[in-house]
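Please, structure for the following, as tokens.
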Amino acid sequence: MKSLLLKNVNAVLPGRVENGVSIVVADGMIAAIGGDETAPGAEVIDLARATLLPGLIDVHIHGAVGIDVMDASAEQLGEVADFLATQGVTGWVPTFVPAADDNYASGVDAIAEAAQREAGARVLGVHYEGPFVNSQQCGALHTEYFRTYSGSSDVDRLPLPSESVRMITLAPEIDGGVELVRELKSRGWVISIGHTRASLNILDQALAAGARHMTHFMNAMAPLHHRAPGPIAWGMSQDDVTLDIIADGIHLDPFMLRLLLKLKGEQGISLISDAIAATGKGNGDYQIWGETISVKDGRTSNAAGSIAGSVITMLDAVRLMHSLDVSYVQLAQMASLNPARLLSLDHECGSIDVGKRADLVALDDAGDVKLTLVGGRVAYSL
């Protein structure tokens, strides 16, 4: 693999920004960071003081550019991966909605094949949003595929690509829900609480059983009430529970984005896109998940009037948060390191450190992508 010397970058390192430094990339890894680094024989890329961030990682994404991950071939997943690289995303977890077993199986087969591809953003595994969720907080999910938990065979029914991330969003208050958390934890799943109306007692039990994250916080959850605190109050108050949020200004008002950051700090929040197939396609009506989903001025809605995912990318989320005076140091944690840590991949990616993968994105002053590296190879260049 070709070595690279990235010159003249403002590098967003853990906890600080180093201006005007050079970064050496060799064998797909970050080999050196400094003011006067050299790399004989390397290709030199002068980034003219662009802001260099660790590559963005999206743990919750249903599709983009007209492609839904539930119905996609490996080749189509590659098209999504190529698009995501143009948006600074270097790793992503295709996310399923509740569906029939055969739909899950074909989707996982495509993911397993796409994960071997050496182009675009890296496919990291699979995220099941459901089917073990609360029908009273269904959002845009189809309740006919919702399930309760009666034993380990119910987990066996969820196919998985081998040697990859396995993540699930569940509601612990469903029948058998806390036992489900224990079973999934024992199998190495990343467990997130969402689409839930759980009581404080059930949430405490789920935490003890191994659930320490919450999906698109505040959305598809019982609303906050002063006599019924529920999952929102619980999530805000638990120091050892992390949250992910859809920072599109629609799912959460910008005031709430600021409030959550104040309460949880950048160490407690991951950004996600929750992007659907219509992402990147503009306004219009789209056939997604067996129904018509309309997109108008960045807002999605299904026939029932419910918000049905987003049409943003992680880059859009970063831009919005930056416009709210959130620094790039904070955003590197929220959009890269925290997602990597959630997936137990922070030993290899998620920050700009010597010895980690060269998963990097350079942004110009307008917040547009100039360069995306995935494992040291150029996945996108302006």
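The chain has two domains: 4-52+366-381, 61-348. Residues 328-342 form the longest helix (15 residues).
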